[in-house]
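Email to the structure team, subject: Magnesium chelatase family protein model.

Hi all, the expression group asked for a predicted structure before they design truncation constructs. Nothing fancy, just the tokens so they can compare against earlier work. One-line instruction: predict Magnesium chelatase family protein, return tokens.
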Amino acid sequence: MILSKGYGSAVFGVNAQVITIEVNIVDGTKFYLSGLPDGAVKESEHRIESVFKYFEYRMPRKKVVVNMAPADIRKEGSSYDLPIALGVLKSSGQITAPDMEKYVIMGELALDGNLRPIKGALPIAIEARKQGFKGFILPSENANEAAIVNNLDVIGVDNLIEAIEFLDGKREIEPLAYDTREHFYNQLNDYEADFSNVQGQENIKRALEIAAAGGHNVIMIGPPGAGKTMLAKRLPSILPPLDLHEALETTKIHSVAGKLGGNAQLITRRPFRSPHHTISDVALVGGGGVPQPGEISLSHNGVLFLDELPEFKRTVLEVMRQPLEERKVTISRAKISVDFPANFMLIASMNPCPCGYYNHPEKECVCGAGQVQRYLNKVSGPLLDRIDLHVEVTPVSFDEMTQNRKAESSEQIRKRVITARTIQQERFKEMEIHSNSMMGSQMVKEVCQINEAGKTLLKTAMERLGLSARAYDRILKVSRTIADLDGKENIGIEHLAEAIQYRSLDREGWAS
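Reply from the structure team: attached below.
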């Protein structure tokens, strides 16, 4: 009997840590697991014993001690089955596996020896390369995901026997080759929904173009069937394409959450997440006994669309306020604190009233006195304070719907958005800011300076329209983005005038 050593990995947040798995067989009885294993890890003994019998290997009838180090970190899940099984076989002399210590090994065993997919294959592969391992042995279903990482031999296996024969040198398995950059650039502009399919709604398209150019949050208010959801779904197609770093970061989050599916590869399109209004606050923000990313982290580098905003529970909406400001989520537990990135654009939509037809050009609103205001009050002021553009959506007329005129494509709009974003990147190159929406109050004063005519216009607008004080900074940020789209160095009166009209819900008495 010999002491065997192998390596697995544990995932915390969106990062992984290498776990050393030591197996020793000594005189005595029973199977012992040490190193803070949870219930799923402890149950591996029964799965491993069943698989050994299936393949006619033997479980040692002595004391088997498996230590998972570092011992003060909790080990969770069933993905340690494969490295523990291989460690027991090596320690009992049933296999030689001379190069086992050169690989990180992960995989859940079925009772017939087949391997089931794991979560977090990408961050584990990144950590394995960082720590200088030769390769990563894992279930075939996760191999494409791990192969995104170059300079690491990714060995996909379907069952325990394949892993044994590979490590004993009895089977040749070619490391999976994956050209990350080629795949990334080939699928960069592959969007199903396009703005060219949308007839009319030119003012809403313009608002979404401004939002995309400055990274601004948007709320659309309009009756049912006006096209709010359809327009929101097309927003990712006009956002600047992901760069390779953003694509890897986004893929890591989906990998940890187990949302990539079988044979998944690099995410090349900006995410678009649209949770139902019955969602819980933990599902939206993230958390749980084993901290998992929520919808706002799955929307990282993309769009979070909340349809029928007032129907969401108040507590659910309020937990978004801090992530919207800090662009990350911190989930704290007694022994661990985990950060998940959450840099997303919030796009919300809502009806103007319970019946949906307040301010409708043709249909009459049947809501009673005060009902409209009570409905709008379901969305708190502090949350609205973090939304830059309030856009009123009106239904498309029959004449507009039946026009044969080809609408502007997403590609054409995206070119203007990319140009505006390039201006902002140059402006903020010395700071940790990437778009106008991320500016703080002090930065707004420095970057969004307006002349006397502009100040007069803004003062008049705030007084006549009854705009609230919180609208001031938002108007300046949006007008800066409009000026960037226009290619102008200074904010003009026309830019301010357009920005002012995007503050509908700040007008006092809007719903009276």
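The chain has a mean pLDDT of 87. The radius of gyration is 28 Å. Ping us if the truncation boundaries need rechecking.
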